[in-house]
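G., before I forget:
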Amino acid sequence: QSALTQPASVSGSPGQSITISCTGTSSDVGGYNYVSWYQQHPGKAPKLMIYEVSNRPSGVPDRFSGSKSGNTASLTISGLQAEDEADYYCSSYTSSNHVVFGGGTKLTVL
Amino acid sequence: QVQLQESGPGLVKPSQTLSLTCTVSGGSISSGDYYWSWIRQPPGKGLEWIGYIYYSGSTYYNPSLKSRVTISVDTSKNQFSLKLSSVTAADTAVYYCARDDSSSGSSIDYWGQGTLVTVSS
């Protein structure tokens, strides 16, 4: 299984919105509404931000939203804040009953 | 509140077997909705899914690691374990144990703090 494709980096100014894409295939992202997004600050374990494409766990701000079209999922962060600066990873369930991660995207808040 | 804690050697010699155990507290490993996962992250790199196990013992492994990986579960101790054989420097990574919620699209809702395993002679 190949890793999902994410941009290496994105940036935005406080208050702006950014979108991170996550591209897979019909065997993973495109085949199921089972895409998750994780936020990871340096030295910390990842934190679940979005599950099942667009659902937010309790406690995650509604500034974080997810969507999917075909084989590409997206994470949008609106009203960027300094504390959003982190690495973001997507993951998807696959047709082999496995999980595959994206390569990760470094978000810089300017 | 579910908590997971990895334990095991932080240094393993090349060609030997890496062994880690994850102890789950605050919830039963026998709960039907969850798969118990191992994920690793080489220094400065991204996350890599290693595999997971259901409490019944069913296992699923990353094809790229399948020949070297064994994940097992001990429900009596509320623990699950990872063995990775014939390790090389490329296996140096932070290893996380985690809970995969199959009722929420295979999302990983609880993670251990991670443990750094270095492969070096």
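Chain A has a mean pLDDT of 97. Chain A touches chain B at residues 1, 3, 32-36, 38, 45-48, 51-53, 55, 57, 89, 91, 93, 96-104 (CB under 8 Å).

More on Monday.
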